[in-house]
Amino acid sequence: MTISENIVSFVSELNSTLRDQTIPPRIDKAIKMYKKETNLLYIEKENEFLTAVIKSQTHPKELEYAVKLNKDGSFFCGTQNLHPCGGLRGKICKHIILALFAAIKSKQGTKEELIKWVQNTNFQKPSLDKTEATRIFLKYQNALEGKIEC
C-alpha cells in the first residue's frame, strides 16, 4: 500500500508539532503498520474523541490495544488485559498514530483538527481508563458479531 499525499502531509505536520526525539521512530512503526493494512481492527471518531482497536505488531495473535485520544489531549493505550501500552512512555504511541492515520484516510477527521488534538497531548500524560478501555473492546466485539448499539 502506498501512503497517500494526505497522510504524508499529516506525518510532516506531526513531526514538526511534536519535536520530540522519541516520536519519529513511533511514526515510522505506525507507517509500517498502516502499509500492512492488517493491524487496524476498529475505529470510531466523534466530535470529542477518537477510539480504535489495534492488533499488536509484534504479537498479532495474542495482543490487541484499545486507544483513545480526546480533543483536549488526554489519551491512553492499553491491552485487552488492561495493562498500559509499553510504548507510551509519556507520549502518544504508534497505536494512537495508526488510529490517526486511519481517521484521516477514512475522512473521519481532518489533518488540522487531529493535529490540534495531538498538540494538546503535550500538556497531558497518558492515563489508562480501564472502564473506557473495556467499553472500546466490547464495542469492537459487538461490531464483529453484528450487534447494533442502541
Lay out the secondary structure.
Elements: H1 5-18, H2 23-36, E1 40-45, E2 49-55, E3 64-70, E4 75-79, H3 94-105, H4 111-120, H5 130-144
Antiparallel strand pairs: 1-2, 2-3, 3-4
Description:
With 150 residues, the protein is α+β, with helices and mostly antiparallel strands. The chain has one domain (5-144). It has helices at residues 5-18, 23-36, 94-105, 111-120, 130-144, and strands at 40-45, 49-55, 64-70, 75-79. The chain has a 4-stranded antiparallel beta sheet with strand order 1-2-3-4, sandwiched between helices. A hairpin with a 4-residue loop joins β3 and β4 (75-79). The radius of gyration is 14 Å and the shape is globular. The N and C termini lie far apart (36 Å).
Task: Give the strand line-up of the largest sheet.
Answer: 1-2-3-4
By secondary-structure content and strand pairing, the structural class works out as alpha+beta
The number of helical elements comes to: 5
Could you report the average pLDDT, rounded to the nearest whole number?
A: 89
Task: Using the alpha-carbon principal axes, give the shape.
Answer: globular
How many beta-strand elements?
Answer: 4
Number of domains: 1
- Bin the strand percentage: 15-25%
Taking the alpha carbons of the first and last residues, their distance comes to 36 Å
Question: What level of helicity do the residues show?
Answer: 40-55%
Using the CA coordinates, give the radius of gyration. 14 Å
Unreliable runs: none
Q: What profile does the largest beta sheet have?
A: 4 strands, antiparallel
Listing every helix as H and every strand as E from the N terminus to the C terminus, the arrangement reads HHEEEEHHH
